[in-house]
Design a protein that fits this description.
The chain is an alpha/beta fold and 349 residues long. The protein has 12 helices and 10 strands. It has 2 domains: 107 residues, no CATH class; 177 residues, 3-Layer(aba) Sandwich (Rossmann fold).
């Protein structure tokens, strides 16, 4: 209060001076209070600090497709929050920040992309489900793939991010285990699915001697048990893959998000998982890509979605059926009973 009185005129009504002093004090306290509330909200998972790179890229390129189709300039705001806007949010992965935020016109060699987009229904951005746009407009990513490949690969080069393991690996496999399967939404793919995906690459003449399995799970205190379980599942998958004829060496790696994305996007061959990150890496890749048909792998409502809703049949891009090769949640009593789940993943087919 003494400090406030120094800031206020010495003359005047004492009540008014006290009121002004209290008001000034509250104004000074508000930023600190906001910071404290923000910390509390973050700890409870209310504020999302980091946008997922796969979903972020999906939002980015859906917005760009909309702009190209409508013949207007492309502009996007990169403030990473999970808001219902065309923002990509705070603390975006470096790759997203590297991509252009504004394009007043488009290169002439994109004219084929523009013509393909014009034959699609009107593209629109619709909030948090933008990453699922491919389910609604099957040809969107097929049309946009040359643009995605060009911009993403150039950005990775400009960043100097080439991935940490892909130079040694013939095939990169993305194994997603964090929210999967513990939240009972998405499901585990069985070992047979991965083996068939490898055999499909071998049938195309793709070398499969060196296999890099990318698996990361944030070791937070709240998820420590879950993280430990996922690490064991990744090692078990590596042992299974190592036994496939034609495979000489298999290892598990985890790097920074942009590094892992680069490893997948620049790999000679990629086997994706049920993940927007590895899906978008596959779309951006010039290599051979196998992705799962997602219809049987989630508890989300997929009614009306068919294999035609995926960009299959493109150059070096194939979708592998998951029928009979997913582990249903109702067949698992406890995902922390790793031995039982491991046996189920071996026998389910």
């Amino acid at each position: 209060m003494t400090y406030c009185r120094r800031l206020l005129p010495s003359r005047g009504d004492a009540g008014k001076r006290s009121f002004l002093c209290i008001t000034l004090g509250l104004v000074c306290l508000l930023p600190a209070l906001g910071f404290f509330i923000s910390l509390r909200m973050r700890a409870r998972g209310v504020i999302q600090d980091h946008v997922q790179v796969g979903n972020g890229l999906a939002v980015y390129f859906v917005s760009m497709a909309e702009a190209i189709q409508s013949g207007r300039a492309f502009a996007i705001h990169k403030y990473c929050t999970n808001s219902q806007s065309v923002s990509l949010g705070r603390d975006c992965p470096q790759l997203i920040m590297q991509l252009p935020s504004f394009m007043s016109s488009y290169p002439e060699h994109w004219s084929g992309v523009r013509n393909e987009l014009k034959h699609l229904p009107p593209i629109y951005y619709y909030g948090s489900t933008a990453s699922k746009q491919w389910q609604v407009f099957p040809a969107l990513y097929v049309a946009m793939r040359p643009v995605i490949q060009e911009l993403v690969q150039k950005s990775l080069v400009d960043m100097g991010t080439f991935g940490t393991q892909q130079m040694d690996a013939n095939v990169v496999i993305h194994f997603r285990c964090s929210d999967i399967p513990f939240d009972h939404t998405y499901k585990f793919l069985t070992y047979e699915w991965y083996k068939r995906a490898l055999r499909s690459l071998q049938a195309q003449g793709v070398p499969t001697g060196q296999i890099n399995i990318i698996h990361c799970s944030a070791p937070t205190a709240r998820l420590l048990r879950q993280t430990a379980a996922c690490a064991k599942y990744a090692k078990l998958l590596a042992a299974v893959i190592d036994s496939v004829p034609g495979v000489q060496k298999t290892w598990v790696s985890c790097g920074k998000v942009d590094e892992d994305f680069a490893t997948m996007a620049r790999a000679p061959a990629l086997i994706s998982s049920i993940s927007s990150m590895s899906f978008m890496a596959g779309i951006a890749s010039y290599g051979n890509v196998v992705v799962p048909d997602v219809r049987q792998t989630t508890n989300h409502d997929m009614q009306g979605v068919s294999i035609d809703n995926m960009p299959c049949g493109g150059v070096h891009f194939s979708c592998a059926s998951t029928i009979g090769m997913v582990l249903n949640h109702e067949d698992v009593l406890d995902y922390y009973d790793i031995d039982s789940v491991h046996n189920a993943l071996k026998t389910t087919s």
